[in-house]
Amino acid sequence: MTERDNAAFDSFEEEYDPLADDFDSSIFDGIEEDDEAVTEFLMPDPSRIEAVEGTPSRQSDGYRQRPAEERTAELFTQMKPYRLMLLQLIRACQQPRTTEEMLQQFEQLHANFKSTYSGANLLSMLEAAGAIDCIAEDGTPYAQVEVEPVVKTDENGVEYLAPGEAPTMLWVAAEAGLAMVEANNPQQRIQQLFAKEAVYLPIFKRILRLAAADEGVSMAQLSGAIDEDPLIQEPRYFSQHFLKNLERHEAVAWQGNRWHTTPLGRQLLEEMADVDDSYSPSEAAEQARIRAIAAESTMGAVW
């Protein structure tokens, strides 16, 4: 057997030895032994992400020195998909509420509205924007509360100072937040939506009508009544698209695992009396069945 020429590999570095004296183990700093068992996706650490130049942090003094009305309006502009949730959180604390109460309110909203933010995240954003305030039970801004140390005695009878118990923190709507709630005009906004998407008025009307039943309507029922409508085949839409628009404009709400038409939605339904909605879900289902049979019968055809 001819001896193999390994000269081409002579320039490679020596074998990597992590046990060598000169091995830099700092590359493993911050990695715990149990980290290997973590398999879920971890969000990036915000403290290690370089901030975009000219964009002040919501926690910076420069940001908080701006008028609360300006900060609140900016937050609602940046968080358009969360507009309804933010408004409802502000409404929930028109009277002082504990953190537990506010998080319970968030969970009720979150049951339908799938948020990538936690309740604590949204409360922090609203507080930084000046839409809500953190206060103690006596009304003092919570940031100004000073917790006095208390004197305790250890097992040997020696007295020492220990941190005192912090007072309960309450959340309460601020003037900027209340102004945003007052300025919210879902009826005007939904009329603008209807004008923009007038061709889909029959779809909007059908959702409102079905959800107006005493028992409400399920998502499956809505899908069956809407998704095969020729009106939304090209471009292709599904019932969720129209449902979310109605929810964001406060015309429908999720209650008891069903969709229900709100008072605003019922008013809109009356105003849409002249909108023609002659679509028949049962007829559409029959047409879909016929198409499916036709498709199966042609699968084995030789052309």
TrEMBL record:
Question: Origin, by domain of life?
Answer: Bacteria
Q: Where is this region: Disordered?
A: 1-26, 42-68
Acidic residues: bias regions: 11-26
- Name the chain's protein: Uncharacterized protein
Q: What is the lineage of its organism?
A: Bacteria, Bacillati, Actinomycetota, Coriobacteriia, Coriobacteriales
